[in-house]
Amino acid sequence: MSRKGGLRLNRSTFNRVVPYVILSLIGVMFLMPLLWVLFAAVDPQAQLSLKVPRGVTLDNFQAILTDPATQMSFVNGLFLSVGQSVLVVIVAGLAAYPLSRYQLNYKKPFMYTILFATALPITAVMVPVYQLFILLNFVDSLVMTMLFLTASSLPYAIWIMKNFMDSVPVELEEAAWVDGASVWRGLRSVIIPLMLPGVFTVSIFTFTSSWGNFFVPFILIQSPDKLPASVTIYQFFGQYGLVEYGKLAAFSILYAIPAVIMYIIGQRYMSQGFNFGGATKG
Amino acid sequence: MMAIELVHEKSSQRNLSNAGSLEKKGKREHVRSILFLLPSWILLLLFFFAPILLTILFSFTNMSLTGSAARDMDFVGFKNFVTMFSDPSFRISVLNTMVFLIFSAILGQQVLGFTLASLMRERSRSFRRIIGTVVMAGWVTPEVVVAFVWFAFFSDQGTANVVLESVGLKPVAWLYQFPMVSVVIANIWHGTAFSMLVYQAALDDVPKEVEEAAKIDGATGWQRLWHVTLPIIRGSISTNMVLITLQTLGLFTLIYALTGGGPGTETETLPIFMYNQAFINYQLGYGTAISLVLLVIGMIASLTYIRLLKLKT
Fold this sequence. Notes:
Chain A contains 11 helices and no strands. With about 280 residues, chain A is mostly helical. Chain A is globular. In chain B, helix 1 runs antiparallel to helix 15 (about 285-310), helix 3 packs across helix 15 (about 285-310) and helix 4 packs across helix 12 (about 235-250). Chain B has 2 domains: about 1-50; about 85-310, MetI-like (MetI-like fold), CATH 1.10.3720. Chain A: This is Sugar ABC transporter permease.
């Protein structure tokens, strides 16, 4: 009896401990590459393998931050990403209004086209987009690249914005109209404040994917002084990657910071992007 | 009688004026919706649908970045496609794409993501938060940095070899001997968080009572997983599968920055092959034909996705 009881106890302890062990192992494996960047960036003698630094230096960060070319690449990157996010929110927000509020006979096909476009890989159209840019003389233009990026995230943004707008009760808006507000004013003072979670979701998603986007500016931008950080860091990696690990690690951290900040701000809104159920109302 | 008629007349009149204002309102709404949708239409037509149409058009030309074909391109019929299907490099890249897709996304990210989500379910809050944050970090890291981090990890003096040596094994030239394994692992690290979040949401919706009932009926953990949990969340599994397939299919940066598609053509997936043909070999027409293949696969996956969403509602 007692042996049996002991066995059962052991098994249940075992069952309780195993998930912690597995999860910790996975956690350590995920953490290792990351720790290396963090350590290498502050290590005066950074190496390619993970080791705790002997001393701590900020020289690597200083070298990257004081380089005018890097500064320029951050400015360019911010121009592309901030510009794209702002435009996407405005343009998609405008489109979402009639799609959410009015009876339009083309609404259903339009929404399905949008959903279809949401899932298409942008990589697949980059060769013809390059040809289009040559044709229209847009190559090497940051503004046009930003507009292209805007268009590429519009389908997703319109879809999300429309669903968020659907959840704002029409009655609230109608009350504003009765009080003499115009449609425009109702949109501004009633809908937009209630839509903020949607606006955040869309702008955070857009900013993060734009900031990390390497392929599009790599194809469409050519002048070194117009390149965003995503491409500059790749070139830095190609030129000095095999020698100056510390600087490259510092560059990586600095480059990743905006994406990380956006993620932290957006954490509470992000989960809504994963709710497939909520995104199905056509 | 009169009174009733009067009322009747009055109400019909009101109806009439209502219909008039409704028509006016409808017209106004119509104009407004066109105005509101206009910026979207312009951007989408110019930068989204036009490129898709151009993909179809240009893939039947001999367009080139340099030489005479750069200025005067000709329609060459199905020549690009004939070249493509007889090109051994094309077959290799299709094969590489499939291997990469199956091992990094469909198996790697899905299984690991599900394992994480289900194991994390009944753990303490702080523990869950730590593991979740570490996994999310891989997802938040921009692709170029992911490539760089794993380049260091797999390099000759990198962490992977230090670990191997510490347990008495010989170091390995990962990026040369096992380039596909390396990019697959890097992509699992980068993408698993997405599947983890999807499955966390899905598992939250599984009713506790159903699982409890199965437990009382004496079902083992595996039986409960296979016969109870997985059937309930199968909608999320298929949706997630299609979404990560689409994400992985178009993946360029991670592979390009980590191995450049090499050594040789060992990690050359379709996007890398497309890039090399269009921008390195200057064969834009041929490169576009390859894009078309990618686009068609993407369209099929995308239509599957819509179908799945429709089924769910």
